[in-house]
């Protein structure tokens, strides 16, 4: 196979200066064989004895939480680390002893059901992960079987030393050492989006000595030994040597192909397996899937500890009282409690052994009062969370029709956490953006061209009340859209630029775009259309724009660039050849890129494009004619969120060029450590005295709705950080595009670009470099904190921007707290050039340092560590790769759906779960305290107030279904109002609805209800005849009456607490009450041996008695009156934010813009980001 019909055979080393980048630093490779550099790979000999004894990992990768062997013990541990479950296990065991006040069956069966249901749910979720692992591990790749024969094998079977053949558009199955490719000089294109989030293709090149291995047969006799570094997490480094034919060849990252990156635009490559499975760099950057629990659930455990304290206190007090009473039970032969038969009791009521009896009573009391602890709480919450997840999955407004992808909650454990997010840590590429650049505007010779609008401009227009309509653009929309080109302006399209006042400069401008780049053209042999492969998306957008506007770059050789352009004189297309003399490459310190070419007239031209802050200072005095107009346009472009570059040129004299070229070649051929510095010095001397042509404006196309989403999240008070592997300039531009940054926002920049550090880098003293770098980072953080302190109380907003090298020092133990303080004081934070490990460490720092809920969102394998480290991991199910989704808690198709996921579903889930838990404790305290009060009135004799099955079924049939319905369906405000008043989300962040004050309030409500129910029932029944036959109420009548009142009270309390009634809630509330009466009839009709003291209690005793019906009317009203009075006064005079919105809806003022703006204005603060804050900041400047 040879390039699939491509006719070019370029030696890219001459264009891309690969020869300059080949590993040659002896000090690095001198470490081979030492600690951390001990790996030895025998190429093409995976079965050799030497390879076998090294016992390297296999290539099987697992993301599951359990295995078949660990599922039972680990899952049981997960369940019984919940303190309530463990307690019920202990009491379930005690229920089999004579101490139990009820039957063992009623105690142990509910626990078994609850634990089993939860374990089944965990097993199903982990099985889904297992299925995804099976799909990845069973992918096929061609591997060398011997004698030049290649055959397909599964990824999981690959071993270190195997030679594989990977073909176009396939993922690399392991970390491979590139041997050769379909190109003669052994280069290949690699897409690393799953690793670093970047969509632009990277170029890799094999060693020259292995480049002839281009056929299957040539592999059969290839044998070499590679010695290299041990497995590590650094994606951007690789140190090793290859011993081939008794010669040593240094290896560098240029030869390493990482697992989960993809081969693009190369027909095939041969590579040798270096790292497999858990040893690969992408897996080294991941962390094991954690067992995540929500903050609400953790706090619920604390409440249960409190209830345990109450339970043990009540049991202790009762036991002490019981022991004292038992000791004095027989006095002078007279039995006080004759009905307990203390004279014939062995232990339980024996006055002679009162201390032992008290201890036994304590154990009995623990079992009797355990109804204070809601056994059905966990299983009810599990059911509710699963149903909430179904609603999230089925939400049509989070369904991405274009890709047929709905939202998918992969775990239901964290639903309520979605309503408490304080900080979002987001990847950039593929998460905020669509991975595409579009040429949209330009400024040439002081004139602005391009009538298109960016997403930011559209969002600001909608906010202003004057939405932008594309119809005003004036372009011809009949033509098919061109990827990378969204430019509309009839003045220069279709060749009309020749009639413009500065037509000659426009020609030079687009000619520069067509020539100044490193893109490679590909001609489709069927359609004849030219496509481009470029190192960056914006560079591709430039050559596409030039092509669409009449300057078509269609051919590149090692020494020339061919452009088909419109001739101004003849008006016809002509082919022009530009001899390529030099390429002065872009890097982050130069911030510009140039080419030197010779045109057909023999003139030597330097064509340059770069960032405005470096280009304007390089202009000649006579080259600044349009500088002011261009700067004005640049400010407008930046405000519209566009990425800008300045274009300029100069003509070189022959002798000047010859002198430059000699110095440039000498610098490139240098093998010293400061080679890059020498090259920069030479290029600095030639890239000067430039003549300004204009500026380009490219939109790094955001996903639909990203600015709106960020604006709403910012108004909700959520902080947003961007962690990206991109360059600082790219990240800053995206920050402007999505309104995380704005004009006038002060930027705190932390980087290592200083003359002192550059000098130390030349000297090569690593210890001195580390010390100086650390000191510089600490100084910049301290300076930034001082700026924040000086402006505290003011209206200035700050943005923190830090690069990956600086971040490594900022995350050190003695600096990270200062760094976090600075970051939390800024309106937005952008971390550039971040490795996957750094992303995870930053996430951990924010999570542990603030103690608040963090959410991480990303789409690539480079985001996996971050997603797993955060409290909530959101995976974007993008067009490439599923690694992020497989490691996430929830998957969505677009970033914009985060708005609805958090502000609507998150708020609802948090409120529902919080209210549900509070209500559970309320109803169990109400029920449990009546048991305690009854036992106290019966001198703590260990007798329950209620029948065994009344006790067992209280939490199952008579009070749980309404609370489940509330947890699934209740809404304090509608979805529309959640989005209209986003600050309501802060109720979750500040934990207003699940604070200790609110929890204790509900407990006191339960205490009040229990006291009212018990004493009212006791006083109403005790002194009088219960019915017309003159019978007084016994234990059976009192217990059934109190139980009936409790069923009414807890269900009516639910009706008062609900904000949004549905048919199901009505059915469950009134159905639970009705079912109690049906149960009394059915259970009472059973044999007395089974129904015991409930035998026909309702039919024969309760129903015929008017006093029973009067009590069940008045007692519930009395018990609910305190809550009703308190909540009415609180809502009227001290309403929470959601209650204010409920008043707006109730009073019909939801469409009153002035009133709604007044309520919504609480969302805006000086440090808020988003286009609303951008507009407010601009308005404030105008007012000043």
What does this structure look like?
This protein is of the alpha+beta class. Among the domains are: 139-285, Calcium-transporting ATPase, cytoplasmic transduction domain A (Distorted Sandwich), CATH 2.70.150.10; 417-432 and 705-892, HAD superfamily/HAD-like (Rossmann fold); 435-466 and 482-652 and 688-700, Calcium-transporting ATPase, cytoplasmic domain N; 904-1135, no CATH class. Helices cover 45% and strands 17% of the residues. The chain starts with 12 loop residues before the first helix and ends with a helix. Belongs to the cation transport ATPase (P-type) (TC 3.A.3) family. Type IV subfamily.
Briefly summarize what is shown.
Its cofactor is Mg(2+). With 1184 residues, the chain is α+β, with helices and mostly antiparallel strands.
Radius of gyration, rounded?
37 Å
Most strands sheet: 9 strands, mixed
**What does the overall shape look like?**
elongated
The overall strand count is 35
Distance between the termini: 69 Å
**Low-confidence regions:** 1-29, 471-476, 1163-1167
What integer is the average pLDDT? 82
Give me the number of helical elements: 43
Oligomer: single chain
Strand order of the largest sheet: 16-35-34-33-17-29-32-31-30
Helix content: 40-55%
Beta-strand percent range: 15-25%
Query: Would you tell me the structural class of the helices and strands?
Result: alpha+beta
């Amino acid at each position: 196979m040879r390039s699939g019909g491509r006719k070019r055979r370029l030696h890219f080393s001459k264009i891309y200066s690969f020869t300059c980048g080949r590993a040659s630093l002896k000090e690095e490779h001198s470490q081979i064989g030492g600690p951390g550099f001990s790996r030895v790979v025998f190429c093409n000999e995976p079965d050799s004895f030497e390879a076998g004894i090294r016992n390297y990992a296999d290539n099987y990768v697992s993301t599951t939480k359990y295995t078949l062997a660990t599922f039972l013990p680990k899952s049981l541990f997960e369940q019984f680390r919940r303190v309530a479950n463990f307690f019920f296990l202990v009491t379930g065991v005690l229920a089999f002893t004579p101490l139990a006040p009820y039957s063992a069956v009623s105690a142990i069966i509910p626990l078994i059901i609850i634990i089993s249901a939860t374990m089944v749910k965990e097993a199903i979720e982990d099985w889904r992960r297992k299925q995804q692992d099976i799909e990845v591990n069973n992918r096929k790749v061609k591997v060398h079987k011997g004698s030049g024969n290649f055959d397909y094998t599964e990824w999981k079977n690959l071993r270190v030393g195997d030679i594989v053949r990977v073909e176009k558009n396939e993922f690399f199955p392991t970390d491979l050492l590139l041997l050769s490719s379909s190109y003669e000089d052994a280069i290949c294109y690699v897409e690393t989006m799953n690793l670093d989030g970047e969509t632009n293709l990277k170029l890799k090149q094999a060693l020259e000595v292995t480049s002839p291995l281009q056929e299957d047969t040539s592999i059969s006799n290839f044998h070499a030994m590679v010695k290299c570094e041990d497995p590590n997490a650094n994606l951007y480094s690789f140190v090793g040597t290859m011993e081939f034919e008794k010669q040593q060849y240094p290896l560098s990252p240029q030869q390493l192909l990482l697992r989960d990156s993809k081969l693009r635009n190369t027909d095939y490559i041969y590579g040798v397996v270096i790292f497999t499975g858990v040893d690969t760099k992408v897996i080294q950057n991941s962390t094991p899937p954690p067992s995540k629990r929500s903050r609400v659930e953790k706090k619920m455990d604390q409440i249960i500890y409190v209830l345990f304290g109450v339970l043990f206190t009540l049991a202790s007090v009762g036991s002490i009282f019981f022991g004292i009473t038992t000791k004095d039970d027989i006095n002078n032969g007279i039995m006080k409690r004759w009905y307990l038969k203390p004279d014939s009791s062995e232990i339980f009521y024996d006055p002679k052994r009162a201390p032992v009896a008290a201890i036994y009573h304590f154990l009995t009391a623990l079992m009797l009062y355990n109804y204070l602890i809601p056994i059905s709480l966990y299983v009810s919450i599990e059911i509710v969370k699963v149903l909430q997840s179904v609603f999230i999955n089925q939400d049509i407004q989070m369904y991405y029709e274009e890709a047929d992808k709905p939202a998918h909650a992969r775990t239901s454990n964290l639903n309520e956490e979605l309503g408490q997010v304080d900080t979002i840590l987001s990847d950039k590429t593929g998460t905020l953006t669509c991975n595409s650049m579009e040429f949209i505007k330009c400024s040439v010779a002081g004139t602005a061209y391009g009538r298109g609008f960016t997403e930011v401009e559209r969002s600001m227009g909608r906010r202003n009340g004057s939405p932008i309509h594309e119809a005003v653009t004036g372009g011809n929309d009949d033509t098919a859209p061109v990827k990378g080109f969204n430019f509309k302006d009839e003045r220069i399209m279709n060749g009309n630029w020749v009639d413009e006042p500065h037509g000659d400069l426009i020609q030079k401008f687009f000619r520069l775009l067509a020539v100044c780049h490193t893109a490679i053209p590909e001609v489709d042999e069927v359609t004849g259309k030219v496509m481009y492969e470029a190192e960056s998306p914006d560079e591709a957008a430039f050559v596409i724009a030039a092509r669409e506007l009449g300057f078509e770059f269609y051919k590149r050789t090692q020494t020339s660039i061919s452009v088909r352009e419109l001739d101004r004189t003849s008006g016809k297309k002509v082919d022009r050849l530009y001899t390529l003399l030099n390429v002065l490459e872009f890097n982050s310190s130069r911030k510009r890129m140039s080419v030197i070419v010779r045109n057909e007239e023999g003139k030597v031209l330097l064509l340059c494009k770069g960032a405005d802050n470096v280009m304007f200072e390089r202009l000649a005095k006579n080259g600044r004619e349009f500088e002011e107009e261009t700067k004005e346009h640049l400010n407008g472009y930046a405000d519209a969120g566009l990425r800008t570059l300045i274009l300029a040129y100069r003509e070189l004299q022959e002798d000047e060029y010859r002198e430059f070229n000699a110095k440039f070649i000498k610098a490139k051929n240098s093998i010293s450590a400061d080679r890059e510095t020498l090259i920069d010095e030479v290029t600095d001397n030639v890239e000067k005295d430039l003549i300004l042509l204009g500026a380009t404006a490219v939109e790094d196309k955001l996903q639909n709705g990203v600015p709106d989403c960020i604006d709403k999240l910012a108004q909700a008070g959520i902080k947003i950080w961007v962690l990206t592997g991109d360059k600082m300039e790219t990240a800053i531009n995206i920050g402007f595009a999505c309104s995380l940054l704005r004009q006038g926002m002060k930027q705190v920049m932390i980087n290592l670009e200083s003359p002192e550090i550059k000098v130390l880098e030349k000297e090569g003293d690593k210890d001195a470099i580390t010390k100086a770098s650390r000191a510089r980072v600490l100084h910049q953080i301290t300076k930034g904190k001082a700026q924040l302190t000086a402006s505290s109380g003011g209206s200035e907003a700050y943005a923190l921007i830090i690069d990956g090298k600086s971040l490594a020092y900022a995350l050190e133990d003695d600096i990270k707290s200062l760094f976090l303080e600075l970051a939390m004081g800024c309106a937005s934070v952008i971390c550039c050039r971040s490795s996957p490990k750094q992303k995870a460490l930053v996430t951990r720092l924010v999570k542990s340092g603030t103690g608040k809920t963090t959410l991480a969102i990303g789409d690539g394998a480079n985001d996996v560590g971050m997603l797993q480290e955060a409290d909530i991991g959101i995976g974007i199910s993008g067009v490439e790769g599923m690694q992020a989704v497989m490691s996430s808690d929830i998957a969505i198709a677009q970033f914009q759906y985060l708005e609805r996921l958090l502000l609507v579903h998150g708020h609802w889930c948090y409120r529902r779960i919080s209210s549900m838990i509070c209500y559970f404790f309320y109803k169990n305290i109400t029920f449990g305290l009546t048991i305690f009060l009854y036992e106290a009135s019966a001198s703590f004799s260990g007798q329950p107030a209620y029948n065994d099955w009344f006790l067992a079924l209280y939490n199952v049939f008579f009070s749980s279904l309404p609370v489940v319905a509330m947890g699934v369906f209740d809404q304090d405000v509608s979805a529309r109002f959640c989005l209209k008043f986003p600050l309501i989300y802060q109720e979750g962040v500040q934990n207003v609805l699940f604070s200790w004050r609110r929890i204790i309030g509900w407990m006191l409500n339960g205490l009040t209800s229990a006291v009212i129910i018990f004493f009212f029932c006791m006083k109403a029944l005790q002194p009088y005849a219960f019915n017309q036959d003159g019978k007084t109420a016994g234990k059976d009548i009192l217990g059934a009456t109190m139980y009936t009142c409790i069923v009414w009270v807890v269900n009516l309390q639910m009706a008062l607490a609900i904000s949004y009634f549905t048919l199901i809630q009505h059915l469950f509330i009134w159905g639970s009450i009705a079912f109690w009466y049906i149960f009394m009839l059915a259970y009472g009709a059973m044999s007395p041996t089974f129904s015991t003291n409930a035998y026909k209690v309702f039919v024969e005793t309760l129903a015929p008695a008017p006093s029973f019906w009067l009590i069940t009317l008045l007692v519930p009203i009395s018990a609910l009156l305190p809550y009703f009075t308190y909540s009415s006064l609180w809502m009227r005079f001290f309403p929470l934010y959601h209650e204010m919105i409920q008043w707006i809806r109730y009073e019909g003022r939801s469409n009153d813009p002035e009133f709604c703006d007044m309520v919504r204005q609480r969302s805006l603060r000086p440090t808020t980001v988003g286009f609303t804050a951008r507009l407010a900041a601009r308005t404030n400047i105008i007012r000043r």
